[in-house]
Amino acid sequence: MKDKKLEKVDKEKEFGKNDENKLSTNTLGNTDGQGQKRQDIRDTEEPTAIGINASNTNTKSTKGKRRKIASLVLAITPLIILAGMVYFLSSPFGQNLINTGVPLPEVTIEKVEFHENQVVAFIRNTGPEQVMISQADINDRIQSAAIEPSQVLPRLSEAKVIIPFFWNTAEPYEVGITTSDGTRFSKVIDAAAPAPVPNINQFSVFAMLGVFVGVIPVLIGLAWYPFMRKITRNQYNFFLSLTAGLLVFLGIDAFLESNEIAANNLAATFNGQLLIPVIIIATFLGLFYLSEYFGKRAESKLSFEYEKEETEQNDTRRLNAQNNFQESSVNPLSKTRVSSSSLTNPLSNDMIGLAQKEEEKNRVEKKEEEEEKLTRLIDKRELIKPLTLSLMVAIGIGLHNFGEGLAIGAAVLLGEIALSTFLIIGFTIHNTTEGLAIVAPLAKTGKLMIRRLVAMGLIAGIPTILGTWIGGFVYSPLASIIFLSIGAGAIFQVVYALAVWMSKSLRESSKTNKAESVDLGEITGRSGSRLLASQGKSPTAAIIAGFIVGLLIMYITGLLV
Protein backbone atom coordinates (compact mmCIF):
# COMPACT_ATOMS: atom_id res chain seq x y z
CA MET A 1 0.00 0.00 0.00
CA LYS A 2 2.80 2.31 0.87
CA ASP A 3 4.44 1.67 -2.47
CA LYS A 4 1.22 2.50 -4.28
CA LYS A 5 0.86 5.69 -2.28
CA LEU A 6 4.43 6.68 -3.08
CA GLU A 7 3.87 5.98 -6.77
CA LYS A 8 0.74 8.11 -6.66
CA VAL A 9 2.60 10.99 -5.01
CA ASP A 10 5.40 10.73 -7.58
CA LYS A 11 2.88 10.83 -10.41
CA GLU A 12 1.20 13.86 -8.90
CA LYS A 13 4.58 15.60 -8.62
CA GLU A 14 5.40 14.78 -12.22
CA PHE A 15 1.98 15.96 -13.28
CA GLY A 16 2.49 19.20 -11.33
CA LYS A 17 5.87 19.71 -12.95
CA ASN A 18 4.38 19.15 -16.38
CA ASP A 19 1.65 21.66 -15.58
CA GLU A 20 4.24 24.16 -14.43
CA ASN A 21 6.26 23.64 -17.60
CA LYS A 22 3.16 24.10 -19.72
CA LEU A 23 2.19 27.15 -17.73
CA SER A 24 5.65 28.67 -18.09
CA THR A 25 5.69 27.83 -21.77
CA ASN A 26 2.30 29.43 -22.24
CA THR A 27 3.41 32.41 -20.21
CA LEU A 28 6.52 32.85 -22.33
CA GLY A 29 4.47 32.48 -25.45
CA ASN A 30 1.99 35.01 -24.21
CA THR A 31 4.83 37.32 -23.24
CA ASP A 32 6.40 37.00 -26.65
CA GLY A 33 3.10 37.67 -28.28
CA GLN A 34 2.42 40.66 -26.08
CA GLY A 35 5.94 41.98 -26.76
CA GLN A 36 5.38 41.63 -30.46
CA LYS A 37 2.04 43.39 -30.11
CA ARG A 38 3.66 46.17 -28.08
CA GLN A 39 6.40 46.56 -30.66
CA ASP A 40 3.77 46.77 -33.39
CA ILE A 41 1.90 49.36 -31.35
CA ARG A 42 5.10 51.34 -30.85
CA ASP A 43 5.84 51.19 -34.56
CA THR A 44 2.39 52.49 -35.31
CA GLU A 45 2.52 55.14 -32.55
CA GLU A 46 5.96 56.58 -33.39
CA PRO A 47 4.76 58.76 -36.30
CA THR A 48 1.89 59.93 -34.12
CA ALA A 49 4.33 60.94 -31.33
CA ILE A 50 6.51 62.81 -33.81
CA GLY A 51 3.48 64.66 -35.07
CA ILE A 52 2.47 65.54 -31.50
CA ASN A 53 5.98 66.88 -30.77
CA ALA A 54 5.91 68.96 -33.95
CA SER A 55 2.52 70.36 -33.04
CA ASN A 56 3.78 71.17 -29.53
CA THR A 57 6.77 72.99 -31.04
CA ASN A 58 4.49 74.97 -33.36
CA THR A 59 2.24 75.81 -30.43
CA LYS A 60 5.20 77.07 -28.39
CA SER A 61 6.51 79.20 -31.27
CA THR A 62 3.02 80.63 -31.80
CA LYS A 63 2.75 81.48 -28.11
CA GLY A 64 6.21 83.10 -28.22
CA LYS A 65 5.19 85.26 -31.19
CA ARG A 66 1.98 86.26 -29.43
CA ARG A 67 3.92 87.26 -26.32
CA LYS A 68 6.33 89.37 -28.40
CA ILE A 69 3.44 91.09 -30.16
CA ALA A 70 1.73 91.73 -26.82
CA SER A 71 4.95 93.19 -25.36
CA LEU A 72 5.38 95.41 -28.44
CA VAL A 73 1.79 96.64 -28.16
CA LEU A 74 2.29 97.42 -24.46
CA ALA A 75 5.48 99.33 -25.28
CA ILE A 76 3.89 101.36 -28.10
CA THR A 77 0.61 102.14 -26.31
CA PRO A 78 1.98 105.08 -24.22
CA LEU A 79 3.58 106.54 -27.35
CA ILE A 80 0.26 106.33 -29.22
CA ILE A 81 -1.52 108.07 -26.35
CA LEU A 82 1.20 110.74 -26.23
CA ALA A 83 0.97 111.31 -30.00
CA GLY A 84 -2.80 111.67 -29.73
CA MET A 85 -2.45 114.23 -26.97
CA VAL A 86 0.13 116.21 -28.95
CA TYR A 87 -2.17 116.17 -31.98
CA PHE A 88 -5.06 117.39 -29.85
CA LEU A 89 -3.02 120.22 -28.31
CA SER A 90 -1.72 121.34 -31.71
CA SER A 91 -5.18 121.35 -33.25
CA PRO A 92 -7.17 124.63 -33.42
CA PHE A 93 -9.51 123.48 -30.65
CA GLY A 94 -6.60 122.66 -28.36
CA GLN A 95 -4.84 125.94 -29.08
CA ASN A 96 -8.00 127.93 -28.39
CA LEU A 97 -8.46 125.99 -25.19
CA ILE A 98 -4.95 126.61 -23.81
CA ASN A 99 -3.54 129.78 -25.40
CA THR A 100 -4.40 132.71 -23.17
CA GLY A 101 -1.67 135.17 -24.22
CA VAL A 102 0.46 136.25 -27.15
CA PRO A 103 3.81 134.39 -27.49
CA LEU A 104 6.80 136.72 -27.72
CA PRO A 105 9.12 136.46 -30.74
CA GLU A 106 12.78 135.54 -30.35
CA VAL A 107 15.39 136.05 -33.07
CA THR A 108 19.06 135.22 -32.51
CA ILE A 109 21.83 136.85 -34.54
CA GLU A 110 24.34 133.99 -34.57
CA LYS A 111 27.19 135.72 -36.40
CA VAL A 112 27.99 138.80 -38.47
CA GLU A 113 30.46 138.83 -41.37
CA PHE A 114 31.99 141.88 -42.99
CA HIS A 115 32.51 141.56 -46.73
CA GLU A 116 33.43 144.17 -49.31
CA ASN A 117 30.89 147.04 -49.05
CA GLN A 118 28.32 144.87 -47.29
CA VAL A 119 27.49 143.37 -43.90
CA VAL A 120 25.96 139.88 -43.69
CA ALA A 121 24.02 138.83 -40.57
CA PHE A 122 23.07 135.17 -40.01
CA ILE A 123 19.86 134.97 -37.97
CA ARG A 124 17.69 132.16 -36.57
CA ASN A 125 14.11 132.14 -35.29
CA THR A 126 14.41 130.64 -31.81
CA GLY A 127 10.95 131.68 -30.59
CA PRO A 128 7.79 129.57 -30.25
CA GLU A 129 6.07 130.98 -33.37
CA GLN A 130 7.08 131.94 -36.88
CA VAL A 131 8.18 135.54 -37.38
CA MET A 132 8.53 137.97 -40.26
CA ILE A 133 11.58 140.23 -40.58
CA SER A 134 10.54 143.77 -41.50
CA GLN A 135 13.78 145.78 -41.45
CA ALA A 136 17.50 145.87 -40.58
CA ASP A 137 19.68 148.62 -39.17
CA ILE A 138 23.31 149.37 -38.35
CA ASN A 139 24.07 151.64 -35.41
CA ASP A 140 20.32 152.43 -35.14
CA ARG A 141 20.16 153.64 -38.76
CA ILE A 142 17.73 151.75 -40.96
CA GLN A 143 19.39 150.21 -43.99
CA SER A 144 18.02 148.50 -47.08
CA ALA A 145 18.53 144.74 -46.86
CA ALA A 146 17.95 141.54 -48.77
CA ILE A 147 16.77 138.51 -46.79
CA GLU A 148 17.49 135.01 -48.07
CA PRO A 149 15.66 132.70 -48.50
CA SER A 150 12.55 134.48 -47.15
CA GLN A 151 11.38 137.18 -44.74
CA VAL A 152 9.11 134.67 -43.02
CA LEU A 153 11.01 132.36 -40.67
CA PRO A 154 9.32 129.27 -39.21
CA ARG A 155 10.49 128.11 -35.80
CA LEU A 156 14.23 127.20 -35.66
CA SER A 157 14.76 128.13 -39.33
CA GLU A 158 17.59 130.44 -40.34
CA ALA A 159 18.09 133.23 -42.85
CA LYS A 160 20.84 135.47 -44.18
CA VAL A 161 20.36 139.26 -44.05
CA ILE A 162 22.58 141.07 -46.59
CA ILE A 163 22.99 144.79 -45.83
CA PRO A 164 24.83 147.06 -48.33
CA PHE A 165 27.07 149.21 -46.15
CA PHE A 166 30.47 150.91 -46.33
CA TRP A 167 32.24 149.87 -43.14
CA ASN A 168 35.69 150.62 -41.75
CA THR A 169 38.13 148.10 -40.34
CA ALA A 170 38.55 147.95 -36.53
CA GLU A 171 35.50 150.14 -35.84
CA PRO A 172 32.64 148.90 -33.59
CA TYR A 173 29.19 148.31 -35.07
CA GLU A 174 25.78 147.28 -33.78
CA VAL A 175 23.63 145.29 -36.20
CA GLY A 176 19.88 145.25 -35.49
CA ILE A 177 16.97 143.17 -36.83
CA THR A 178 13.34 144.21 -36.33
CA THR A 179 10.32 141.89 -36.67
CA SER A 180 6.88 142.78 -38.00
CA ASP A 181 5.51 143.44 -34.49
CA GLY A 182 8.25 146.03 -33.80
CA THR A 183 10.54 143.90 -31.61
CA ARG A 184 14.22 144.64 -32.22
CA PHE A 185 17.16 142.28 -31.70
CA SER A 186 20.80 143.35 -31.99
CA LYS A 187 24.39 142.15 -31.81
CA VAL A 188 27.46 144.27 -31.07
CA ILE A 189 30.75 143.73 -32.93
CA ASP A 190 33.67 145.27 -31.07
CA ALA A 191 35.97 145.61 -34.09
CA ALA A 192 35.03 144.97 -37.71
CA ALA A 193 37.39 142.73 -39.69
CA PRO A 194 37.11 141.34 -43.21
CA ALA A 195 35.73 137.80 -43.28
CA PRO A 196 38.12 135.14 -44.64
CA VAL A 197 37.37 134.13 -48.22
CA PRO A 198 37.80 130.42 -49.03
CA ASN A 199 40.79 130.35 -51.38
CA ILE A 200 44.25 128.80 -51.52
CA ASN A 201 45.86 131.77 -49.82
CA GLN A 202 43.44 131.79 -46.88
CA PHE A 203 43.60 128.00 -46.53
CA SER A 204 47.38 128.28 -46.34
CA VAL A 205 47.17 131.00 -43.70
CA PHE A 206 44.90 128.93 -41.46
CA ALA A 207 47.01 125.81 -42.06
CA MET A 208 50.18 127.64 -41.01
CA LEU A 209 48.34 128.98 -37.98
CA GLY A 210 47.32 125.44 -37.01
CA VAL A 211 50.86 124.16 -37.52
CA PHE A 212 52.42 126.87 -35.34
CA VAL A 213 49.73 126.68 -32.67
CA GLY A 214 49.12 122.92 -32.51
CA VAL A 215 51.57 120.69 -34.37
CA ILE A 216 54.99 122.24 -33.69
CA PRO A 217 54.43 122.84 -29.94
CA VAL A 218 53.39 119.22 -29.39
CA LEU A 219 56.40 117.89 -31.32
CA ILE A 220 58.67 120.19 -29.31
CA GLY A 221 57.20 118.75 -26.13
CA LEU A 222 58.06 115.23 -27.33
CA ALA A 223 61.75 116.20 -27.22
CA TRP A 224 61.61 115.66 -23.44
CA TYR A 225 61.44 111.90 -24.04
CA PRO A 226 65.23 111.18 -23.70
CA PHE A 227 65.31 113.16 -20.46
CA MET A 228 62.22 111.39 -19.12
CA ARG A 229 63.77 107.96 -19.68
CA LYS A 230 66.62 108.70 -17.24
CA ILE A 231 64.61 110.01 -14.30
CA THR A 232 64.06 108.20 -11.00
CA ARG A 233 60.80 106.64 -9.85
CA ASN A 234 59.84 109.64 -7.68
CA GLN A 235 60.65 112.04 -10.51
CA TYR A 236 58.52 109.87 -12.79
CA ASN A 237 55.61 110.18 -10.34
CA PHE A 238 56.16 113.95 -10.33
CA PHE A 239 55.91 114.23 -14.11
CA LEU A 240 52.91 111.91 -14.28
CA SER A 241 51.14 114.13 -11.77
CA LEU A 242 52.29 117.23 -13.67
CA THR A 243 50.67 115.72 -16.77
CA ALA A 244 47.44 115.25 -14.85
CA GLY A 245 47.57 118.90 -13.75
CA LEU A 246 48.10 120.07 -17.34
CA LEU A 247 45.17 118.00 -18.57
CA VAL A 248 42.83 119.07 -15.76
CA PHE A 249 43.54 122.71 -16.63
CA LEU A 250 42.84 122.02 -20.32
CA GLY A 251 39.59 120.24 -19.46
CA ILE A 252 38.38 123.07 -17.24
CA ASP A 253 39.40 125.60 -19.90
CA ALA A 254 37.41 123.75 -22.57
CA PHE A 255 34.40 123.51 -20.24
CA LEU A 256 34.44 127.24 -19.45
CA GLU A 257 35.01 128.22 -23.08
CA SER A 258 32.09 126.12 -24.27
CA ASN A 259 29.89 127.66 -21.56
CA GLU A 260 30.92 131.14 -22.71
CA ILE A 261 29.99 130.34 -26.32
CA ALA A 262 26.67 128.86 -25.19
CA ALA A 263 25.85 131.95 -23.14
CA ASN A 264 26.88 134.56 -25.73
CA ASN A 265 26.35 133.04 -29.18
CA LEU A 266 23.82 130.22 -28.84
CA ALA A 267 20.09 130.67 -28.43
CA ALA A 268 18.56 129.56 -25.14
CA THR A 269 16.26 127.23 -27.09
CA PHE A 270 19.13 124.81 -27.68
CA ASN A 271 19.90 124.54 -23.93
CA GLY A 272 23.60 124.71 -24.69
CA GLN A 273 24.69 124.90 -21.06
CA LEU A 274 22.81 121.66 -20.32
CA LEU A 275 24.11 120.03 -23.49
CA ILE A 276 27.73 120.55 -22.38
CA PRO A 277 27.72 118.22 -19.33
CA VAL A 278 25.71 115.63 -21.26
CA ILE A 279 28.35 115.48 -24.02
CA ILE A 280 31.21 115.48 -21.49
CA ILE A 281 29.75 112.53 -19.55
CA ALA A 282 28.90 110.60 -22.74
CA THR A 283 32.41 111.14 -24.13
CA PHE A 284 34.00 110.10 -20.83
CA LEU A 285 32.04 106.85 -20.67
CA GLY A 286 32.51 106.08 -24.37
CA LEU A 287 36.28 106.55 -24.29
CA PHE A 288 36.51 104.61 -21.02
CA TYR A 289 34.80 101.66 -22.69
CA LEU A 290 36.97 101.94 -25.82
CA SER A 291 40.22 102.11 -23.85
CA GLU A 292 39.27 99.02 -21.83
CA TYR A 293 38.12 97.19 -24.97
CA PHE A 294 41.25 97.88 -27.01
CA GLY A 295 43.52 97.08 -24.05
CA LYS A 296 41.89 93.69 -23.49
CA ARG A 297 41.86 93.02 -27.22
CA ALA A 298 45.59 93.68 -27.48
CA GLU A 299 46.29 91.39 -24.51
CA SER A 300 44.14 88.59 -25.96
CA LYS A 301 45.90 88.99 -29.31
CA LEU A 302 49.29 88.61 -27.63
CA SER A 303 48.09 85.53 -25.74
CA PHE A 304 46.72 84.02 -28.94
CA GLU A 305 50.01 84.61 -30.78
CA TYR A 306 51.94 83.06 -27.90
CA GLU A 307 49.67 79.98 -27.82
CA LYS A 308 49.83 79.66 -31.60
CA GLU A 309 53.63 79.77 -31.60
CA GLU A 310 53.74 77.26 -28.75
CA THR A 311 51.39 74.91 -30.64
CA GLU A 312 53.49 75.13 -33.80
CA GLN A 313 56.67 74.31 -31.89
CA ASN A 314 55.00 71.36 -30.16
CA ASP A 315 53.79 70.04 -33.51
CA THR A 316 57.32 70.36 -34.92
CA ARG A 317 58.80 68.48 -31.96
CA ARG A 318 56.16 65.76 -32.26
CA LEU A 319 56.87 65.37 -35.98
CA ASN A 320 60.62 65.13 -35.36
CA ALA A 321 60.05 62.50 -32.68
CA GLN A 322 57.89 60.46 -35.04
CA ASN A 323 60.55 60.65 -37.76
CA ASN A 324 63.25 59.53 -35.33
CA PHE A 325 61.08 56.65 -34.18
CA GLN A 326 60.42 55.55 -37.76
CA GLU A 327 64.13 55.67 -38.60
CA SER A 328 65.00 53.59 -35.55
CA SER A 329 62.24 51.06 -36.25
CA VAL A 330 63.30 50.41 -39.87
CA ASN A 331 65.96 47.88 -38.80
CA PRO A 332 65.33 46.73 -35.23
CA LEU A 333 68.12 44.10 -35.43
CA SER A 334 70.76 46.77 -35.89
CA LYS A 335 69.42 48.47 -32.77
CA THR A 336 69.69 45.16 -30.93
CA ARG A 337 73.23 44.64 -32.11
CA VAL A 338 74.20 48.10 -30.95
CA SER A 339 72.63 47.54 -27.58
CA SER A 340 74.29 44.12 -27.22
CA SER A 341 77.61 45.39 -28.42
CA SER A 342 77.38 48.26 -26.00
CA LEU A 343 77.71 45.76 -23.20
CA THR A 344 81.20 44.81 -24.34
CA ASN A 345 82.29 47.96 -26.19
CA PRO A 346 83.06 50.94 -23.88
CA LEU A 347 83.04 53.29 -26.87
CA SER A 348 79.31 52.66 -27.36
CA ASN A 349 78.73 53.51 -23.69
CA ASP A 350 80.45 56.82 -24.28
CA MET A 351 78.17 57.44 -27.25
CA ILE A 352 75.12 56.72 -25.11
CA GLY A 353 76.41 59.16 -22.48
CA LEU A 354 76.95 61.82 -25.12
CA ALA A 355 73.43 61.25 -26.42
CA GLN A 356 72.01 61.66 -22.92
CA LYS A 357 73.99 64.86 -22.42
CA GLU A 358 72.74 66.16 -25.76
CA GLU A 359 69.19 65.35 -24.74
CA GLU A 360 69.66 67.13 -21.41
CA LYS A 361 71.14 70.13 -23.24
CA ASN A 362 68.15 70.25 -25.60
CA ARG A 363 65.80 70.09 -22.62
CA VAL A 364 67.56 73.00 -20.93
CA GLU A 365 67.55 75.04 -24.16
CA LYS A 366 63.85 74.34 -24.60
CA LYS A 367 63.14 75.51 -21.04
CA GLU A 368 65.21 78.67 -21.55
CA GLU A 369 63.42 79.37 -24.83
CA GLU A 370 60.03 79.01 -23.16
CA GLU A 371 61.09 81.32 -20.32
CA GLU A 372 62.37 83.87 -22.84
CA LYS A 373 59.09 83.77 -24.76
CA LEU A 374 57.13 84.16 -21.55
CA THR A 375 59.31 87.13 -20.58
CA ARG A 376 58.69 88.74 -23.99
CA LEU A 377 54.96 88.21 -23.56
CA ILE A 378 55.02 89.82 -20.11
CA ASP A 379 57.06 92.75 -21.44
CA LYS A 380 54.59 93.30 -24.27
CA ARG A 381 51.66 93.16 -21.85
CA GLU A 382 53.33 95.68 -19.56
CA LEU A 383 53.93 97.91 -22.59
CA ILE A 384 50.26 97.84 -23.63
CA LYS A 385 48.99 99.92 -20.71
CA PRO A 386 51.39 102.91 -20.97
CA LEU A 387 51.15 102.84 -24.76
CA THR A 388 47.35 102.87 -24.61
CA LEU A 389 47.47 105.64 -22.02
CA SER A 390 49.75 107.81 -24.17
CA LEU A 391 47.51 107.20 -27.18
CA MET A 392 44.43 108.23 -25.19
CA VAL A 393 46.29 111.36 -24.02
CA ALA A 394 47.11 112.18 -27.66
CA ILE A 395 43.48 111.63 -28.73
CA GLY A 396 42.16 113.76 -25.86
CA ILE A 397 44.60 116.57 -26.63
CA GLY A 398 43.75 116.26 -30.33
CA LEU A 399 40.03 116.67 -29.64
CA HIS A 400 40.80 119.64 -27.39
CA ASN A 401 43.03 121.19 -30.05
CA PHE A 402 40.29 120.69 -32.64
CA GLY A 403 37.90 122.69 -30.47
CA GLU A 404 40.66 125.23 -29.84
CA GLY A 405 41.19 125.51 -33.61
CA LEU A 406 37.46 126.11 -34.08
CA ALA A 407 37.59 128.90 -31.53
CA ILE A 408 40.69 130.48 -33.10
CA GLY A 409 39.25 130.33 -36.62
CA ALA A 410 35.93 131.74 -35.45
CA ALA A 411 37.67 134.53 -33.52
CA VAL A 412 39.57 135.49 -36.68
CA LEU A 413 36.35 135.31 -38.71
CA LEU A 414 34.38 137.44 -36.27
CA GLY A 415 37.21 139.94 -35.79
CA GLU A 416 37.57 139.15 -32.08
CA ILE A 417 41.35 138.59 -32.30
CA ALA A 418 44.04 139.82 -34.65
CA LEU A 419 46.80 137.49 -35.80
CA SER A 420 50.08 138.67 -34.41
CA THR A 421 53.50 137.28 -33.62
CA PHE A 422 52.87 137.67 -29.89
CA LEU A 423 49.64 135.64 -30.12
CA ILE A 424 51.32 132.78 -31.98
CA ILE A 425 54.24 132.77 -29.52
CA GLY A 426 51.80 132.62 -26.62
CA PHE A 427 49.92 129.65 -28.09
CA THR A 428 53.19 127.88 -28.91
CA ILE A 429 54.50 128.17 -25.35
CA HIS A 430 51.10 127.26 -23.92
CA ASN A 431 50.76 124.08 -26.02
CA THR A 432 54.35 122.83 -25.74
CA THR A 433 53.49 121.19 -22.43
CA GLU A 434 50.99 118.96 -24.27
CA GLY A 435 53.89 116.99 -25.76
CA LEU A 436 55.20 116.38 -22.25
CA ALA A 437 51.81 114.93 -21.31
CA ILE A 438 52.09 112.40 -24.16
CA VAL A 439 55.66 111.42 -23.27
CA ALA A 440 55.22 110.95 -19.51
CA PRO A 441 53.42 107.55 -19.47
CA LEU A 442 56.09 106.02 -21.76
CA ALA A 443 59.10 107.24 -19.79
CA LYS A 444 59.66 103.94 -17.92
CA THR A 445 58.88 101.44 -20.67
CA GLY A 446 62.57 100.96 -21.48
CA LYS A 447 61.98 100.95 -25.24
CA LEU A 448 62.74 103.70 -27.73
CA MET A 449 59.59 104.36 -29.78
CA ILE A 450 60.33 107.44 -31.88
CA ARG A 451 57.92 106.59 -34.70
CA ARG A 452 55.03 105.98 -32.36
CA LEU A 453 55.74 109.18 -30.48
CA VAL A 454 55.80 111.21 -33.69
CA ALA A 455 52.52 109.57 -34.77
CA MET A 456 50.94 110.47 -31.41
CA GLY A 457 52.24 114.02 -31.74
CA LEU A 458 50.56 114.33 -35.13
CA ILE A 459 47.33 112.86 -33.71
CA ALA A 460 47.38 115.57 -31.05
CA GLY A 461 48.45 118.46 -33.30
CA ILE A 462 46.88 118.05 -36.76
CA PRO A 463 43.26 118.50 -35.54
CA THR A 464 44.18 122.13 -34.80
CA ILE A 465 44.56 122.74 -38.56
CA LEU A 466 41.18 121.17 -39.29
CA GLY A 467 39.60 123.24 -36.53
CA THR A 468 40.96 126.53 -37.87
CA TRP A 469 39.65 125.71 -41.36
CA ILE A 470 36.16 124.84 -40.14
CA GLY A 471 35.97 127.67 -37.62
CA GLY A 472 37.30 130.23 -40.07
CA PHE A 473 35.05 129.38 -43.02
CA VAL A 474 31.88 127.70 -41.68
CA TYR A 475 31.65 128.77 -38.05
CA SER A 476 28.79 127.32 -36.01
CA PRO A 477 28.34 128.04 -32.28
CA LEU A 478 26.62 124.69 -31.75
CA ALA A 479 29.45 122.78 -33.46
CA SER A 480 32.03 124.64 -31.37
CA ILE A 481 30.20 123.74 -28.16
CA ILE A 482 29.90 120.09 -29.17
CA PHE A 483 33.57 119.65 -30.07
CA LEU A 484 34.86 121.59 -27.07
CA SER A 485 32.69 119.42 -24.82
CA ILE A 486 33.94 116.25 -26.52
CA GLY A 487 37.51 117.45 -25.94
CA ALA A 488 36.78 118.14 -22.27
CA GLY A 489 35.22 114.70 -21.78
CA ALA A 490 38.17 113.01 -23.48
CA ILE A 491 40.64 114.91 -21.30
CA PHE A 492 38.80 114.04 -18.08
CA GLN A 493 38.80 110.36 -19.10
CA VAL A 494 42.55 110.52 -19.67
CA VAL A 495 42.98 112.15 -16.26
CA TYR A 496 41.06 109.25 -14.71
CA ALA A 497 43.30 106.74 -16.51
CA LEU A 498 46.36 108.68 -15.34
CA ALA A 499 45.08 108.60 -11.76
CA VAL A 500 44.73 104.80 -11.95
CA TRP A 501 48.22 104.54 -13.44
CA MET A 502 49.67 106.86 -10.78
CA SER A 503 48.13 104.78 -7.99
CA LYS A 504 49.92 101.75 -9.43
CA SER A 505 53.19 103.70 -9.65
CA LEU A 506 52.67 104.94 -6.08
CA ARG A 507 52.33 101.36 -4.80
CA GLU A 508 55.50 100.34 -6.65
CA SER A 509 57.38 103.34 -5.24
CA SER A 510 56.22 102.49 -1.73
CA LYS A 511 57.45 98.92 -2.11
CA THR A 512 60.81 100.11 -3.49
CA ASN A 513 61.32 102.64 -0.71
CA LYS A 514 60.33 100.08 1.91
CA ALA A 515 62.80 97.56 0.52
CA GLU A 516 65.55 100.19 0.43
CA SER A 517 64.84 101.22 4.02
CA VAL A 518 64.93 97.58 5.16
CA ASP A 519 68.25 96.97 3.39
CA LEU A 520 69.75 100.15 4.80
CA GLY A 521 68.43 99.28 8.24
CA GLU A 522 70.12 95.89 8.10
CA ILE A 523 73.42 97.57 7.22
CA THR A 524 73.44 100.61 9.49
CA GLY A 525 70.80 99.77 12.07
CA ARG A 526 67.55 101.57 12.86
CA SER A 527 69.15 104.99 12.44
CA GLY A 528 69.78 104.20 8.77
CA SER A 529 66.11 103.70 8.00
CA ARG A 530 65.28 106.90 9.87
CA LEU A 531 67.90 108.72 7.81
CA LEU A 532 66.36 107.43 4.58
CA ALA A 533 62.90 108.44 5.72
CA SER A 534 64.15 111.90 6.58
CA GLN A 535 65.57 112.41 3.11
CA GLY A 536 62.10 113.26 1.75
CA LYS A 537 61.62 110.38 -0.67
CA SER A 538 57.85 110.52 -0.36
CA PRO A 539 55.97 109.70 -3.59
CA THR A 540 52.84 111.39 -2.24
CA ALA A 541 54.66 114.71 -1.92
CA ALA A 542 56.02 114.35 -5.47
CA ILE A 543 52.52 113.66 -6.85
CA ILE A 544 50.93 116.63 -5.06
CA ALA A 545 53.75 118.96 -6.09
CA GLY A 546 53.59 117.79 -9.72
CA PHE A 547 49.83 118.37 -9.93
CA ILE A 548 50.09 121.91 -8.55
CA VAL A 549 53.04 122.75 -10.80
CA GLY A 550 51.09 121.49 -13.84
CA LEU A 551 48.16 123.79 -13.04
CA LEU A 552 50.48 126.76 -12.51
CA ILE A 553 52.36 126.15 -15.77
CA MET A 554 49.14 126.17 -17.79
CA TYR A 555 47.85 129.26 -15.99
CA ILE A 556 51.06 131.26 -16.46
CA THR A 557 51.48 130.29 -20.13
CA GLY A 558 47.78 131.03 -20.66
CA LEU A 559 48.44 134.66 -19.74
CA LEU A 560 50.45 134.96 -22.96
CA VAL A 561 47.48 134.05 -25.15
From TrEMBL:
Annotated Basic and acidic residues bias = 1-22, 35-45
Transmembrane parts of this sequence: 69-89, 203-225, 237-256, 268-290, 383-402, 408-432, 453-475, 481-501, 540-560
| Disordered: region residues | 1-62, 328-347
Which Pfam families does the UniProt entry name for this protein? Zip
Comp. bias (Polar residues): 23-34
Q: Which InterPro entries match?
A: ZIP
Q: Which UniProt keywords apply?
A: Membrane, Transmembrane, Transmembrane helix
Q: Which GO terms describe its molecular function?
A: zinc ion transmembrane transporter activity
One CC-aspect GO term: membrane
Compartments, record wording:
Membrane
Q: Kindly give the membrane topology term recorded for this protein.
A: Multi-pass membrane protein
Q: What is this protein called?
A: Zinc transporter ZupT
